[in-house]
Inverse folding.
């Protein structure tokens, strides 16, 4: 846990969030500025800076993040038409919050993978 980390503060309940799934090791909540009709963030409760750090430090935990993302996608009705799962990582990846999070995006066609 990191005292100043925004998403650690959401895990601790210090900042409100619209939680859609809460497991022993992960939590999923709606993005405050949704970029698609469905936009949910999935995080591990334990603090890791980014997906590369988490994947190498705890492969079981990243699998649990992926499982939660899949269950959220199913519960949000995204499986039939498809969805996008994104881990922005570091400066070039456009990561703004340094607590690893998967974006689950769907509910409409999402357009090209990258804006050019
Ligand atoms: P990143 O750019 O790091 O991949 O994504 C960070 C995401 O966190 C953004 O989509 C942003 O809208 C979202 N976000 C930032 N602050 C908050 C907050 O306080 N609550 C919630 N629910 N989402 C947030
Ligand atoms: Zn954190």
């Amino acid at each position: 846990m990191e005292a100043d980390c925004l998403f650690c503060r959401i895990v601790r309940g210090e900042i409100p969030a619209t939680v859609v799934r809460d497991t022993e090791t992960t939590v999923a909540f709606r993005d405050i500025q949704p970029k698609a009709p469905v936009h949910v963030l999935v995080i591990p409760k334990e603090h890791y800076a980014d997906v590369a750090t988490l994947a190498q430090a705890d492969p079981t935990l990243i699998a649990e993040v992926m499982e939660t993302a899949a269950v959220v996608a199913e519960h949000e009705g995204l499986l039939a038409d498809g969805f996008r799962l994104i881990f922005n990582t570091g400066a070039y990846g456009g990561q703004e919050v340094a607590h690893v999070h998967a974006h689950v995006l769907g509910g409409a066609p999402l357009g090209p993978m990258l804006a050019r």
Summary: The chain is about 25% helix and 20% strand.
